[in-house]
Specification:
homodimer, alpha/beta, 2 domains, 5-stranded parallel β-sheet, 3-stranded mixed β-sheet, 13 helices, about 50% helix, globular, Prephenate dehydrogenase (chains A, B), NAD(P)-bd_dom_sf (chains A, B), Prephen_DH (chains A, B), PDH_C (chains A, B)
């Protein structure tokens, strides 16, 4: 039988995990702090409670995989209860900043059973009603391969990711956070700066077309969401932002003194071209638990590798 | 009878103007310096020559509207020949930096007959074969309303713009150039900087999705084109770039010292929201040649106004 799944937090992401796991035939149940989210899940025919203690007691009885799907600030209190009531359950999360979550989990003494995760799926809307079982279909879902990660828990979390229809991308937590700063948080800040700059120029909005529309699209995201992701990843975002600002400052200097933006434009075009042909290979040969398996997975993920089906274990060979 | 049209330079934009004007039933003929472009136009059944003198002599005989569609560096030599052979013809251009072109035209003593223009249409490919009569359909086409502009020449150029299926946006040359810096040239530099920054981060391309793809799309544009537009508009691009860099520097400081990017994110979201609901009103009441008509048009264009059909003249009322 597949591992039962207990989802803590039934918003867009948690609610979608609950639905997808149920659709895959698993025993599923969820907890939500507010009665609204719980009632919405119950009304849709799912097993949900607003009583954390009963949810965790049941998780412990069933040895369920616990999925942390609450905002990061709510984690420490939740982890304290997990340690008290369900310390032996495998544990994962679906939040966006991996190092901060790992720190909280480690502080609660639960790292041994924890393998972090981050589904790269849309967040334009929020709450239980916005979720659906197909939200993660085909999307990359980062699964952490930090030094402490246990191969059995890893296999358990991977199984859920594949049940949700995602492809798993193995990564170390700090590498995930640095990449997220570069490909998600920095683009948001650049888009905001572009929107503000153009707003001050008479005629700009009257003439704005493709490059402005694309370049500011993510500035349409709710400010609270943008702040939470950028501010929660400040240690990685600051050096990334510094790098982008240094590139712009060099281009500015070169434009002012030599009437040229050749360096930035040539390297930018080359980088974008490289991105367009970035390979996506399937990872099939790494054996979970063998020597150096975590390092091998992190290297494969970095090179564009994804996991599309269960990986072998020493037992399964 | 509609004013005949003589297009100088039969690349993507010039070639498309020639086709659109012919499709509107006008007498049209073109000049191209290289035999390749001329032969391609001839093979498609259009009237084209590589002999500038004969093209301009004919333009003078027909009092044709001359359309400058050559790269900016080629303008001074071309304008010299126009002054010699066709100084009384109405004159417009279809290049992207309006103040520099106006300077060249003024230096050649042809400002009296000149009304600048800039169709905001795609430039991903180039050359005669890439063009077509529908290229400008529905696109904004800037028409300049600088202090020197003559109402009769303005009406003649406007007529061509409308024949090409575009909506005309009246603007002063320096305002056009400042707006182009903010909505086109700055987005290109930000996209290049984002692509270069992410390229240096392991795992970034492996996880890159929507916000990175959108934010770097224009970094896929040919470097020569990006350089030409940015470097040709340096006087306007430099202060625009400074403004964006100052906004990013403020956000960086606030993130480092207060763990907050609230200011940038809130103003960016507000600006993007304002852009999404920017009005597009039709300009119908300005009478060409009446007191203050240029100022009235520039103000209307700045507020989002567009011209969709011929404007009244003192004679026509």
């Amino acid at each position: 039988m597949k591992t039962p799944v207990c989802v803590l937090g039934l918003g867009l992401i948690g609610g979608s995990v609950l639905r997808a796991a149920a659709a895959a035939g698993r025993v599923t149940f969820g907890y939500n702090r507010s009665a609204d989210g719980m009632n919405a899940a119950l009304a849709d025919g799912f097993d949900a409670t607003a009583d954390l203690e009963s949810a965790l007691t049941r998780a412990a009885q069933l040895s369920a995989l616990i999925v942390l799907a609450v905002p990061v600030p709510a984690l420490p209190a939740l982890l304290e209860q997990i340690r008290r009531l369900a310390p032996d359950c495998p544990l994962t999360d679906v939040t966006s900043v991996k190092a901060a979550v790992l720190d909280d989990v480690t502080a609660a003494g639960l790292a041994e059973k924890f393998v972090g995760g981050h589904p790269m799926a849309g967040t334009a809307h929020s709450g239980w009603p916005a979720g659906h079982a197909g939200l993660f279909e085909g999307a990359p879902w980062v699964i952490s391969v930090d030094d402490h990660v246990d191969p059995t828990v890893f296999a358990t979390v991977l199984d859920l990711i594949l049940d949700c229809g995602s492809v798993a991308v193995p990564a170390r937590s700090e590498e995930h956070d640095a990449a997220a700063a570069a490909i998600s948080h920095l683009p948001h800040l650049l888009a905001e700066a572009l929107a503000v700059t153009a707003a001050d120029v008479p005629l700009a909005f009257a003439l704005a077309a493709g490059s402005f529309r694309d370049g500011t699209r993510v500035a349409g995201t709710a400010p609270d969401l943008v702040r939470a992701m950028c501010e929660g990843n400040a240690p990685q975002l600051l050096p990334t932002l510094d790098r982008a600002m240094a590139l712009l400052a060099e281009a500015r200097e070169s434009l002012a003194t030599e009437s040229s933006v050749a360096d930035l434009v040539n390297t930018g075009h080359a980088a974008r071209t490289r991105y367009e042909s970035f390979p996506r290979n399937e990872i099939v040969t790494v054996v979970l638990g063998e020597d150096d398996w975590r390092r091998a997975l992190a290297a494969a993920g970095r090179a564009g590798g994804v996991i599309r089906s269960a990986l072998p274990t020493p037992d399964s060979r």
